[in-house]
Amino acid sequence: MNPTATAVRAGFARGWIELRQMYLSAPDLIGQFLTPAISLAALYLLRNREYAGSELSIAELALPGLIGSIIAFNGLFAITNVLVLDREDGTLLRAKAIPNGMAGYFVGKIAAAAGSVLVQVLVVLAAGMLIIGGSSLDGVGAWLTFAWVVLLGLLATLPSGAILGGVLEGPRATFLLTMPLMGLIAISGIFYPVTALPGWLQAVAQVFPMYWAGLGMRSALLPPDAVAIEIGRSWRHLETAAVLGVWAVVGLLIAPVVLRRMARHESGSSMAARREKAMQRAF
User: Fold this and answer.
1) Which phi and psi angles does 46 have, rounded to 5°?
2) Which residue of 17, 141, 205, 258 pairs with 166 in a disulfide if CB–CB is 3.0 to 4.6 A?
3) Which residues of the chain have pLDDT under 70?
4) Nearest one of 181, 182, 172, 169 to 83, comparing CA atoms
5) How high does pLDDT run on average in the chain?
6) DSSP the chain
7) Nearest-angstrom CA–CA distance, 21 and 17
8) Quick one: which of 250, 17, 18, 10 has its CA closest to 107?
9) pTM for the whole thing?
């Protein structure tokens, strides 16, 4: 039997177990859905406020962007945080001690992260359509757009999260990462149309996956006339696929190199050095 195939199967089994445990634990559930719940509550309060020049409310316009931000932010941050913490507590070192354990470990973590993002997307979509309304997935085309945006969004962000998890040192660095990520979400048209921002901020937003994941979700969930408030009055599907695809290809090429390097340098002495550094910071 092929050892790599066995490790991959074991990784998917591990990912399923971790995903199931995640939704059987109250603290994990709160961590997964607290921010989306707060965001949905804020959008509910804005459900009767129309955006200027459209017949849609601010909440209806923001819901697809919220879903796009879940794909982009959680796809990036979830795997980053897990890798950093598992290096701290020795989980990664234990996986390295097992034959083909690193392959199974990485497959399991990516599968669990992707599964958790998909669950959040579907729950927020269902809850948002129920309490806010306005969004719909009418027709096969809308469902296909929804599916490929989710898939490409995950492919664009999960490898990047793995790269960051391989180079960041300690939970403090992960925490500091949230600040620029929140800044990117703020300028990516998630909660307000990007066309309301200065041109240079629009240009910055379009470099990163957050904007394109949100745009793709809006094209799938909003009525056709909502395109009037977008850049160029177009959903720009080709550009969305191109930018997310470039991020996915670059990430998939770089992530294995970074992860192999991280695994090669992982040892008992390196873990002890990190713990000693953490203790020095604490005192």
Assistant:
1) -100, 10
2) 258
3) 1, 52-54, 134-136, 266-283
4) 169
5) 83
6) --HHHHHHHHHHHHHHHHHHHHTT-HHHHHHHHHHHHHHHHHHHHTTT-BPTTSSSBHHHHHHHHHHHHIIIIIHHHHHHHHHHHHHHHTHHHHHHTSTTHHHHHHHHHHHHHHHHHHHHHHHHHHHHHHHT------HHHHHHHHHHHHHHHHHHHHHHHHHHHHH--HHHHHHHHHHHHHHHHHTTTSSS-GGGS-HHHHHHHTTSHHHHHHHHHHHHHS-GGGGGGSGGGS--HHHHHHHHHHHHHHHHHHHHHHHHHHHHH--HHHHHHHHHHHHHHH-
7) 6
8) 10
9) 0.86
Overall domain count for the chain: 1
Give the Cα separation of 79 and 164 in Å (integer). Answer: 9
Instruction: Give the other-Cβ count within 10 Å of 143's Cβ.
Output: 12
Domain containing 269 equals 3-282
Contacts of 109 (CB under 8 A, 6+ apart): 15, 18, 79, 82, 83, 86
